Every structure is written in structure tokens, then in C-alpha cells.
What we know:
By secondary structure, this protein is mainly alpha-helical. It has helices at 7-30, 34-53.
Amino acid sequence: MSKVVNLNQVRKQKSRDDKRRAADANAAKYGLSKAQKTLSKALIKKTKRDLDGHEKE
């Protein structure tokens, strides 16, 4: 005998899986850890300081 399947539960689980998959893709594409953000900001500040130091008056 086959198992009875609640189609509403299957539909909702599929929707949750799709959202989770999209969220994981966005996190991989856009997300950075706090350490990476801090390092990036520090490098930007240093670059701006170095460029300002080479300006002619």
C-alpha cells in the first residue's frame, strides 16, 4: 500500500526550501562576515589617507 501524502504540507515545505535556497544564494553573493567588513573599511580608510597625503597644494 502507498503512503498518504498531505499536499498542503508538501507545498509549504517546497516553498520553505525554495526560500531557504534563495536566502543562502543571497548570503553567498552579498553577505560578508563582520571581520571582513571591518577589514574592508580599514583598507578603504588607509587608501584614502594615502591618496590625501600625495595631493599637491
